[in-house]
Design a protein that fits this description.
There is one protein chain. The protein is α/β, with parallel strands linked by helices and 348 residues long. The chain is 38% helix and 28% strand. It is built from twelve helices and 15 strands. The strands form four sheets. Strands 5-6-7-9-8 form a five-stranded mixed β-barrel. Helix 2 packs across helix 4, helix 5 runs antiparallel to helix 8 and helix 9 runs antiparallel to helix 11. It is elongated.
Amino acid sequence: MNKELILALDALEQEKRIKKEVMFEALEAALVTAYKKNFGSGYNCFAEVNRETGDMRVYCTKTVVEDVLDSFTEITLEEAQAINKRYSIGDSVDFEASPAKFGRIAAQTAKQMVVQKIREAERGNMYDEYSDKENDVMSGKVEKLDRRGIMIDLGTAEALLAPSEQIPGEDYTPGRRLKVYVFEVKKTTKSVNLNVSRTHPGLVKKLFEQEVPEIADGTVQIKSIAREAGSRSKLAVFSEDPNVDPVGACVGQKGIRVAGIVQELNDEKIDVIQYSEDPAEYISAALNPAKVLSVEIDEKNKSALVIVPEFQLSLAIGKEGQNARLAARLTGWKIDIKSDKDYEGTEA
């Protein structure tokens, strides 16, 4: 057992990056706990594990006194001098206290401690590996349906795609590869929980960063995103370089760049619009694909009255109000849309 222990600790140091000395110290503390649990909590004891052989010993410390009041921590002068004549009143005596059956207890304790340390190391290594992936996109494979949601295999860890983070109607057949947004990496006492999303606006942002070099290098900036996952997203982009068309850069030649992202998002529609510091221009662009005639801005209430041709009214509002709703979320303005006919009637 002792030789096997040393070999096991050597392997842990190499494979799990746990320093062997840390393991020895943890084992010694565990042995003391095991001893007190089995033979009495009143003992003042310590353990030693030989770093070369793996031999385990427990020692109890007692103080030399004239009259023993606590047998756990005190010893008479006569008993102490029977061990060594040099002892006198007030001295501390350390003597081995490992009973015959302690070898079995020590072996069990060592095994439990090593298993615990392996789990701790795996949790620590996993957290170190994935903590910097928070707020980033990872590629994974649908593994199985769990009672909490869908488990995604990320390679060296599993992540949970909860029902609230799934795109409505999307196919999650086991084996399918997809990209997910890691919005939380949480270390608990038992595991490292990775929570991922297919609905988070951050997924759209990261996919554009991966697909569009101008976004990755900072030439084009994403100013805002509004998303209703599985249906439609609106993305406002801007560039300080007058020679760069931010919308064109994101869409790509013949729409190839945005098409790849649309495909990844289960054919979700994506509107890429030009950001503007001018609220009227920004709101007008945000209502794409509708054509806007005019925008009246109310700065105080941060609201806007948008006038569109009557035949464009339903397009501007969108199915179940989606286009107007996303435009309002994208711009941060309250938007009221009227047709030119209704607006003229109001003025009259």
